[in-house]
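Bench notes, afternoon.
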Amino acid sequence: MQLGKLKEIDIRKVWQHEQYDFSKWLSSENNIKELGDVLNLSLTDVETEKFVGNYRCDILCKDEITGKIVLIENQLEPSNHDHLGKIITYASGLDAAVVVWIVQNAREEHASAIEWLNKHTDKEVSFFLIEIHAYTIGNSEPAPLFKIIEQPNDFNKNIKTLSQKGEMNESQSRRLEFWTQFNEILEERGKPFNKRKATTDHWYSVALGSSECHLTIDLVNREHKIRIGLWIDDNKDLYDSLEEKKDEIEAKTNIKFEWDRLDEKKASVICKYIDGLDFDNQSNYKELMNKVIDEIVILKNVFSKYI
């Protein structure tokens, strides 16, 4: 078998201008999704050249699941102090919760600065330093590659914040442990959907590409079950339209759901339960987590066609 050689090329030969070429390329639907996959976020509501006082940031968007504001600053050159100051200024002016600094080459002192910011801020703010590279194989078209240089350590940050507040009880600790292992298996499987950061919450959300609804995984340890399904935030018409296709949806998923319109509430839910959760006996965790992932992938593939 004859193999080609991977060759890195100058990113300025791919994107000559930072604003008109790279930012425009990155803000397109497919490319912002690719960046989101790297960040484990579902990026929506993309705006370019957003003004902050007399300045303007390159890209502003939101994480679909959490609603957090995501600031992206591009620099097609080695990182410098000027842009480090800019990302902090822009983040403050726009109340961004996630700050992404994309550079051609990350200098050591700036990587250290981003690491320091992640260590000394709470879990509500996250900083990413990412290098953008481009490669060819033979005469192929250039292929972009996002390389994470610095990112928040969410597990450690959650532990730090909760221990400072003295709020972590046994259930929270067990949930944090569950989601950390869940994310590890998700990584091993090539992330069939974006992972969320491990938290002490009983729930874990998976984006569907719509602000109206999302998939959810809920830990119900008292009943030794995991609930998975579609959570519709505040749209009874959407729920009704899906329930009209109930037989069709259940046939495609091969799942018998519980359909609950929740008339007394804004939300609606379409769900099923998986038995076997026991925080005190984790011997089946890998099997259980893989089953949850398998079924969430099915739900994502089917429900996305109806949303």
